[in-house]
Specification:
Length: about 80
């Protein structure tokens, strides 16, 4: 019995890590689609508030852009300019 419980615990940990990794690697647009698909199930299970919070966070990430732009707006980037 203890071996079965241990195997079940390991399987749950591995599945949780796989789901978390997949979530982190998804684009924000795909995350929104996934949340929209899972929203009815989450409401039935009583996790509607958590799904709504995740959706708001994902919408914020989508609105923020890709974060490739510099936060220092005073620096002028001149492609091709020599470094002196």
């Amino acid at each position: 019995m203890a071996s079965f419980a241990q195997d079940l615990l390991v399987a749950l940990i591995v599945a949780g890590c796989a789901i978390f990794s997949a979530w982190r690697l998804m684009s924000p647009r795909l995350r929104l689609r996934t949340l929209d698909f899972l929203a009815p199930v989450a409401k039935r299970l009583g996790a509607g508030n958590a799904a709504a919070r995740l959706r708001n966070q994902t919408m914020g990430q989508l609105a923020a852009g890709c974060s490739a732009c510099s936060h220092n707006k005073t620096v002028v980037h001149r492609p091709g300019a020599g470094r002196g």
